[in-house]
Design goal:
Layout: H1 2-13, E1 18-24, E2 31-35, E3 42-44, E4 49-55, E5 59-64, E6 70-78, E7 81-89
Keywords: Signal
């Protein structure tokens, strides 16, 4: 009996190498996907979708609004755990 439970336990505790994120732009304009802190952003048209796999140690941010005021969703995959933060960034130095 213990032999059957052991492989199941290994499967349940195996680390995840990547996290798949799918987003659909339901905003009234284009949005940008920034992968890491370098490179040009990917533009996602209104109504279009985008799929991304975050490997361990990587991060990405979806941003709607090119000015200081924006809505942003950030994702990171750290030590096989996925973290996210959704922010509304106000205009100017108000918060």
């Amino acid at each position: 009996m213990a032999r059957r439970a052991f492989p199941l336990l290994m499967l349940a505790t195996a680390p995840v190498a990547a996290t798949k994120i799918q987003a659909v732009n339901l905003c009234n304009g284009t949005m940008e996907l920034h992968i890491g802190s370098h490179g040009d952003p990917i533009t996602i048209a209104q109504g279009a979708g985008h799929s991304l796999e975050l490997t361990d140690g990587s991060n990405a941010a979806y941003r709607y609004g090119a000015s200081y005021q924006a809505t942003q969703a950030e994702f990171a995959n750290v030590d096989s755990s996925t973290w996210y933060d959704i922010s509304i960034i106000p205009a100017g130095n108000t918060g």
